[in-house]
Amino acid sequence: MSMHRFFVPASWLEKEKVTITGPLVHRLRNVLRLKAGAHIVLLDNSGWEHEMEITSVSSQRIEGQVVHKGLATGEPRTKITLYQALLKLDKFEWVLQKGTELGLVGFVPIISERCIIGSLEDISKTKMERWWRILMEAAEQSCRGRLPSLRAAMLFPSACEEAARGGLTLIPWEQEREQSVSSILRAAEQPPFSINLFIGPEGGFTSEEMAQAQLYGAVPITLGPRILRAETAGLVAATAILYELGDLE
C-alpha cells in the first residue's frame, strides 16, 4: 500500500526532525487516524520526497523524523504548459485535476472571444484559491514531486505573445487536416523540451484568433477525425505528446 503524500512548506524539512502544525494535523489525526509509527511522504515542491516516520501525535502538532529522502519519479521530461480557454466552472476544474495527474507542468487560463467568462475581473481570488487546492490534491494523489504552476488569467493575444518567447506552440484546430502531433514531433531535429498547448473554449477559437496565433508561431494540428469537447481536447493532445516523446513508458 502506498504512503499518503502531502505538500508542506520547505522550511519544515530543513532538519531531520519535522513538526507538522495547522490544518494538516486534523487531516492526519482525525481523518486518516494516523498514529505513532506510521509513515507518510512529505513534499517541498523541489522534486524531492521525504519519507517521515511519525513519532508523536497531539491535537495541535504531529512530530516525526525523516527516514529517507529521494527524487520523486512522477515528473515528465517533457514540460507541457496548457493554455486553456476558460470553460464552465466544473469543466475547467476537471481539466486542472486530470491535467495535473497526467503530468502537465503549468496551466494558464485564457479568455478568448467565445469564452463564457468575458473579463479578467470575473476570476475571483476565491476561485484561484480553489483551483490551487485542486492542483495540490491531484499532485499528491498522482505521485508528483512538483506542483504545476497556475498563472493568472490572461487575454488570448497576450497569451500568444507570451508563448512565443519559448518552446514549441501547438494549437489543435478542427479545420487542420494534415499536421498531427506525431508528424510535427517526428519532423523536429530534436525532441522539444518545452511545449505550449493552446485549447479553445466550448465554441472553439475563431478563424481570426487562429490567424493571430500563427503570426506568433503557433502550429495548427489535428487530433483526428472526431470533434472533441473543449475539456477533453487538451488531455488527448497532451497524452499524444507524452506518448510520442516516450514519457508514458
Radius of gyration (Å):
20 Å
Q: According to CATH, what is the topology of the largest domain?
A: Alpha/beta knot
The coarse silhouette is elongated
* Number of structurally distinct domains: 2
Beta-strand fraction estimate? 25-35%
The count of β-strands is 12
Low-confidence sequence ranges = none
The level-1 CATH class of the largest domain: Alpha Beta
Our count of helices gives 7
Q: Could you tell me how far the N terminus lies from the C terminus, measured between alpha carbons in angstroms? A: 22 Å
CATH superfamily of the largest domain: SPOUT methyltransferase, trefoil knot domain
| Structural class category | alpha/beta
Walk me through what this model shows.
The protein has 249 residues and is α/β, with parallel strands linked by helices. The chain has two domains: 5-71, Ribosomal Protein L25, Chain P, CATH 2.40.240; 79-244, SPOUT methyltransferase, trefoil knot domain (Alpha/beta knot, 3-Layer(aba) Sandwich). Helix content is 32%, strand content 25%. The chain has seven helices and twelve strands. Strands 6, 7, 8, 9, 10, 11 and 12 form a seven-stranded parallel sheet that branches. α2 packs parallel to α3 and α2 runs parallel beside α7. The relative contact order is 0.15.
Descriptive labels:
249 residues; alpha/beta; Ribosomal Protein L25, Chain P; Alpha/beta knot; 7-stranded parallel β-sheet; 5-stranded mixed β-sheet; 7 helices; 12 strands
